[in-house]
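During the reporting period the student researcher (J.K.) took over the structure-prediction task from the postdoctoral fellow and processed the backlog of single-chain submissions. One of the processed entries is reproduced below for the supervisory committee.
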Amino acid sequence: MSDNIILCGVGGQGTVLASKLLAAAAMAKGLPVKTAETIGMAQRGGSVFSHVRIGEGVDSPLIGRGRAGIIIAFEPAEAVRQLPYLRAGGTVVVSSKPIIPVSATIGGPTYDLDAIMAYLRAHVENLIVVDADAAAADLGSSKCLNVVLLGAAVRSGVLSLTSDDLRAAIIARLPDRFHELNFRALAYSA
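J.K. obtained the following structure tokens:
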């Protein structure tokens, strides 16, 4: 049995760091891990997604369509973009905060958050929506949304990792000055 996890968002949201924390937590438990990232135009707010596969029998870092057990989405439209990879009965943990693409602000297609969220509710059996604005206000920072979403994913029960596993990865991978904020983010539940 393996965990097939897709993380997605836009550049600057911490998607790649979140995938590295998952991989570090799994390796510390002695579990085999494979990862792959596509960052494209991430530095300009473009799509970023990572595939993280944890467990025995994982030969490829890429997750096939319909094979992801969980999608951790830092942005609602990116969650919709990755839905073809979710297996039947899979879980989506998604931030409620949209990142409006530049194209929508200069006359391109509009960004309809209500329609996007309605689509997710209609097509995802196990949907966990995280209020990113409330989390940022409660924690005093929006920079730890990635760890808030990881905490929600762990609490969903879909992953083989625990909060303690991720806490150890935070200690191992992040500077000391960020530990306490990220520990609070990991435990955050609205």
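The committee noted the following: The beta strands are 2-10, 33-38, 47-55, 68-73, 86-95, 126-130.
J.K. will present the remaining backlog at the next meeting.
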